[in-house]
Amino acid sequence: MRRFLNILQLGVKEMRSLWFDKVLLFFLIWSFSFGLYESANSQSTELRNASVAVVDEDQSPLSRRLIDALRPPEFMPATAIAFDEIDPGLDAGLYTFTVHLPADFQRDVLAGHQPTVQLNIDATRMNEAFIGSGYIQNIGIGEVSRFVLGYHGDPPLPIQLTTRMQFNPNLNGVWFFGAMELVNNITFLSIILAGAALIREREHGTIEHLLVMPLTPFQIMAAKVWANGLVVLAVAAASLMIVVKGGLAMPITGSMALFLLATALHLFSTTALGILLATITRSMPQFALLMILVVVPLNMLSGANAPPESMPPAVQSIMLAAPTTHFVSLAQAVLFRGAGLSIVWPQLLANLAIGSIFFLVALARFRRTVALS
Predict the structure, then answer these.
(1) How far apart are CA 27 and CA 329, in angstroms?
(2) For every residue of 66-102, which 3-state class applies, written as one string?
(3) What is the rounded CA–CA span in Å between residue 19 and residue 9?
(4) What's the CA gap between 41 and 250, in Å, rounded?
(5) How far apart are CA 133 and CA 104, in angstroms?
(6) Residue 90's CATH number
(7) According to the model, what pLDDT value does residue 156 have?
(8) Is 104 left (phi over 0), alpha (psi -120 to 50) or beta?
(9) What is the distance between the alpha carbons of residues 88 and 95, in angstroms, rounded to a whole number?
(10) How confident is the model at residue 371 (pLDDT cuts 50, 70, 90)?
(11) What is the spatial distance between Cα 186 and Cα 244, in angstroms, rounded to a whole number?
C-alpha cells in the first residue's frame, strides 16, 4: 500500500509540474483543439467553393451548359471575364481556375471535330488545383457527351453496376483526417510529455532529490507513465467529443469506452517509449532530434496516412512491432466501422505486449542511468 501511495503522490507531482509548464500545456491544448480542427480541414480531399472564371467566346447553348455545370458546392458561381483578364486574375489570386471556350466551339463539336478548351490553373494551391482539374475535365466531357446524344443521362449498358459505400458513405475526407490526426496527436504528445518529464527532472536536479527518498526507479517511472498518460487520455477524450464529433460533425459508430480503453493501452506503450528515449538523450534538443527519427516513421508507416497493404511486405512486418500500427487499425475499426471487442481484441493484446516490452526496457535503462549518476 505504501508503494502504491508513493506512485500516486509522485503522479500528482507530475501533473502539477505540467500545470506550471505553460508552454507545454498550451501546446497540448492547441494540438487537440484548434490545431486538430485546422489540420483536418486543410487535408480534405474534397473540393469546396473553388473560384473559377470563364472566357466564353462562343456564347452558344453548349458553352452556357458547361458554365452552368460548374456549380456549388464544388465551385463558386463562375465569373465571366475577358481573355486579357486571365493572367492578372490568376496572378492576383482571384481565381484558382480559368476556362477559355473558343469561338465556334459548339459548331466544331457537332461537326465531329475536337476543339481545344484551355484550362489555366493556379498551381500554388496544390491540393485544390489537382482535384479541381479532374472535376472540370469530367464535367466538360460529361456535358459534351450529353449534348451530342441529345438527352440527359448516360447511354444504356448491358449491365447495371450499383456502388454502395459501407462506411463513410459521403466519402468525407475531413472525418477520416480528423480521426487520424487525433490518433497521431495521442502518440506524439504522450511521447513528448513522458520524455520531457524525465529530462526536466534531470535538468533541474530534482532527480537526485527523488533518489535520496525511499523511492525505487520503478515507482518514479510508473508515476510518470500513469500521470502523463492520464493527462493525454483526458484531453483526447474531450477532443474526440468536442472537436471531432462536434466541430467536424463526424459520427462515432463504435463504443467510446472501447476506444478509450485502447487509447489507455496505447498510452502505456508510448509513455514508456518516451521515457526510453529520454534515457538515451541528455537534453531537450537531443530529445527533439531523436523524436524526429522515431515519431515520423511511426506516424507515416502506421496506416494513418496510407493503407499498410500498399507498403512493401518487409515494412509491413517491421511495423507489426510498433504500437501505432495496431492502434490505428483499432481506431479505424471502432470509430468508423463500429467494431466491438470480439474483433479488435488482437490489437489490444498486441499493444499490451509491446507496451510491456517498452516499459521493461525503459526501466532497465532508467536504473542504469540512475546508477551512473
Answers:
(1) 26
(2) HHHHCCCCCECCCEECCHHHHHHHHHCCCCCEEEEEC
(3) 15
(4) 12
(5) 23
(6) 3.40.1710.10
(7) 64
(8) left
(9) 10
(10) low
(11) 14
User: 292 and 197 in one domain?
Assistant: yes
In sequence order, the 6+-apart residues with CB closer than 8 A to the CB of 9 are 223
Question: Burial, 327: exposed, middle or buried (Cβ in 10 Å; 0-12, 13-18, 19+)?
Answer: buried
DSSP 24-59: HHHHHHHHTTHHHHHHHHHT--S--SB-EEEEESS-
- d(Cα 176, Cα 250) in Å, to the nearest integer? 9
- Same-domain status, 357 and 304: yes
Residues 215 and 67 in one domain: no
Q: How many domains does the chain have?
A: 2
Question: Same domain for 264 and 218?
Answer: yes
> Tens digits of per-residue pLDDT, 130-189?
888 888 998 988 888 888 876 555 556 677 777 787 887 777 778 888 899 999 999 999
> pLDDT per residue over 48-59, tens digit each?
788 999 999 999
Task: Say if 11 falls within a structural domain.
Answer: yes
Domain that holds residue 222: 2-43+171-372
CA atoms 10, 16, 21, 26: torsion sign: positive
Do residue 284 and residue 359 come from a single domain? Answer: yes
The per-residue b/e assignment along 176-200, b for 16 or more CB within 10 angstroms, e otherwise, is: bbbbbbbbbbbbbbbbbbbbbbbbb
Report yes or no on 362 lying in a domain: yes
Q: How far is CA 303 from CA 15, 131, 209, 219, 264, in A?
A: 32, 23, 43, 34, 20
- CA gyration radius, the chain: 28
Domain annotation covers residue 361: yes
134's grid cell: 479532374
pLDDT of residue 373: 56
Q: Let me know if residue 131 belongs to a domain.
A: yes
> If DSSP codes are grouped into helix, strand and coil, which group holds residue 119?
strand
* DSSP 8-state symbol, 179: H
* CA separation for the pair 244, 194 (Å, rounded): 25
122 and 245 both lie in a single domain: no
